Amino acid sequence: MPDPCDALQQILDHPPLADAGIDHDVLRERLDAISGIDVCILEGLRRAGVEGDWRNYEAYLWAAFLRPRPDMTPVLIEALRRRDERAPNEDILDLLTILEDAEAFDVLKQTLAWDPEWDEAHAIGVKAVYALGGIPQAEPVLREAAASGRLEVREAAKAVLEHRFSSTTSQTPNGPGS
After folding, report:
1. Lowest CB count within 10 Å: 57, 89, 121, 127, which one?
2. Are 59 and 16 in contact (CB under 8 A)?
3. Residues 125 and 115 sit within 8 Å (Cβ to Cβ)
4. Domain locations in the chain?
5. pTM of the model
């Protein structure tokens, strides 16, 4: 039986996922056919992040999106802390949004303030807002973001606050539709 990490690497390399259009259903089928790859995904992310091999990191991220686990959070945090413009920062933030792990709170708060010159649409800040939206203690940070800062970030923060942190007391006493 082949090593699951080698099998995963072959799937991620052929065709190179970072260059090709990704068929998520096909990738999911291939990943599901290999047992024991969760640790391989985590190790691949860790290794590629340490090496600054962002192309390979991004390929492992695609696998991580299909098999998200909370133990990925520290590896994602470490990559995001580097603030390397070549890193797939937006994809990292997307995965942190899925994970909703409070461990990422500090780096997400810092990332919210990051305004890289190359990010004209402020996607980094907007995605940091969405990732913070899954963390209960982030409400004060989101309220601050909704009140000041870049327009795109303010609008995203307002939307997240309305969706995630709004009170449910607006329903009628006997329930909706009474």
Report:
1. 121
2. yes
3. yes
4. 1-67, 71-165
5. 0.87
